[in-house]
Amino acid sequence: MSCRTLCGLLLLVTIAAAPASDAQQASRIPTVGLLGATSQAASSPNFTAFRQGLRKLGYVEGKTVLLEVRSADVAVERLPELARQLVALKPDVIVATNDVTIASVRRETQTIPIVMGNSIDPVGTGFVTSLARPGGNITGLSNISSELNGKRLALLKEVVPGLSRVALIWNPDIRGALLDYKEAEAAARSQHLELQSVEVSRNDDFQRAFASMTSQRVQAFILTPNPVTLASRDQITSLARKNRLPSMYAQEEYVQAGGLMSYGPSTAENLRRAATYVDKILKGAKPADLPVEQPTKFKLSIDLKTAKALGLTVPASLLQRADEVIQ
User: Fold this and answer.
1) Cα–Cα distance list, 216 to 155, 220, 221 (Å)
2) Which one of 149, 237, 264, 310 is CB 3.0 to 4.6 Å from 250, fit for a cystine?
3) Do 18 and 25 meet the contact criterion of CB atoms below 8 Å apart?
């Protein structure tokens, strides 16, 4: 066989193989990891919203995108192992729902893109360099708003006559929570309210927390975002009613469980928006170049049954401003 003939055969083999290789590459289905901290995260309204966001963008689960879901079922000590599991799968992108899950995934990878579902303060916690230019492998959505706790305090004052002493229940183990507490402390001073710090890092702490608030003559409390407490919202709202303490939460799920009021960004809406970040990254965008999105819409929910049980009258003007009223 001459050299010219051999070279021609090799060229034909290369040309024939190229379309198969391209087809194989084109048929590859991207994988998205999801990491949640609360129980039943795989079927939660938040992950349902994320799936809805993907569908709206044209993705079909199992056909054009694969989802790998992991949930700590409130046992946050499991998060490091779950994060390692997801990273080992080498997904194209990982969505982490809150600060504790974001931190767990970040410790395992500095290369796989990470999309934040909700972060209290991504700059303050060091997840990103700046909101405009994150600068690393993390981007997504933030809950940061300098007026949130101030607004929650003001709403409580509208409902609780003569309010002067309020407790803030927060988890010091969550990165960013201290920033949230300091913001609340400043807001309380400006509204001439005394703020009582109540630290809760485990569900077992709530009996002690309510006993402490009662002894300190607290008139109402605010519960900051906390993945540990969300799964125990029925217990928390029950203790609030039992101790006749008006309550304000950051998430609407607590009001749906019998809490008095909630005000804040919709967690489900943020997860729905997270799908747009996933879409951009799968199409080639780099997290470092995608600005972090801040909340622009806030939802006010009120449970009138709980208000009546506490002997409170919700002003008509406040009810008109509410996005959700449970009769």
Assistant:
1) 22, 11, 12
2) 264
3) no
Q: Average pLDDT of the chain?
A: 87
- Is 316 buried (19+), middle (13-18) or exposed (0-12) by CB count in 10 A? exposed
Q: What is the pLDDT of residue 21?
A: 44
CATH 3.40.50.2300 maps onto the chain at 29-144+267-289, 148-264+299-326
Q: Which residues contact 198 (CB under 8 A, 6 or more apart)?
A: 167, 168, 169, 170, 209, 212, 213, 221
Rounded to whole angstroms, the Cα distance separating 197 from 168 reads 5
Q: Which fold has domain 29-144+267-289?
A: Rossmann fold (3.40.50)
- Phi/psi at 90 (nearest 5 deg)? 55, 55
More reliable by pLDDT, 232 or 136: 136
68 within 8 A of 33, measured Cβ to Cβ: yes
pLDDT at 93: 98
Pick from 69, 20, 18, 60: which is nearest to 42 by CA?
69
Which backbone phi and psi does 261 adopt, to 5 degrees? Answer: -145, 155
Q: Is 312 exposed, middle or buried (0-12, 13-18, 19+ CB in 10 A)?
A: middle
Q: Of all residues in the chain, what percent carry a pLDDT higher than 70?
A: 87
Chain segment 128-145, per-residue pLDDT in tens: 999 999 999 999 999 876
Instruction: Tokens 């994060």: give the residue.
Output: 83
66 has pLDDT over 90 = yes
Would you say domain 148-264+299-326 falls under CATH 3.30.450.20? no
With 60 as the cut, is the pLDDT of residue 116 above it?
yes
Would you state the pLDDT for residue 73? 73
